[in-house]
């Protein structure tokens, strides 16, 4: 395995971390403006997804911008957006977790799903390795 591939999970975490900051800060702003937490996380997730694409495509997965990756990314983001909403509702409303821990757990689970989708489907890394 080459060094770039070995460092991919770290680059994914750093890129995703930047996008997560966009998500969470947007969510906080929307909640401060009066939106319910579930609606605020939906808006924040969308903002984070927009910020995340160029980072993941060009830095994490080491490619130049390819317009062909956009439809797959949009589909993966749609899945992640629905997963974010469903998990957040389950944790926050059904299980009565506070907003912050519910979102942290949700983000961690969605990130695991996203890495797999991005690696295998969106950015077409067909390798069988875990990196």
TrEMBL record:
Compartments reported by the entry: Membrane
Regions crossing the membrane: 12-32, 38-55, 67-89, 95-118
Keyword Lipid biosynthesis among record annotations: no
Membrane topology: Multi-pass membrane protein
Pfam families reported in the protein's UniProt record: GtrA_DPMS_TM (PF04138)
Residue span, GtrA/DPMS transmembrane domain: 11-123
Keywords from the UniProt entry: Membrane, Transmembrane, Transmembrane helix
UniProt similarity note: Belongs to the GtrA family.
Protein name stated in the entry: GtrA-like protein
């Amino acid at each position: 395995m080459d060094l770039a591939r070995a460092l991919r999970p770290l680059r994914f975490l750093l890129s995703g971390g930047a996008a997560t900051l966009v998500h969470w800060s947007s969510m906080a702003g929307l909640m401060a403006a009066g939106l319910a937490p579930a609606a605020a996380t939906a808006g924040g997730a969308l903002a984070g997804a927009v910020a995340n694409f160029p980072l993941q495509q060009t830095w994490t997965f080491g490619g130049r911008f390819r317009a062909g990756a956009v439809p797959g990314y949009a589909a993966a983001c749609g899945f992640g957006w629905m997963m974010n909403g469903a998990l957040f509702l389950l944790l926050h409303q059904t299980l009565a977790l506070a907003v912050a821990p519910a979102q942290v757990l949700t983000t961690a689970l969605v990130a695991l799903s996203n890495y797999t989708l991005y690696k295998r489907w969106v950015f077409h890394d067909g390798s069988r390795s875990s990196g």
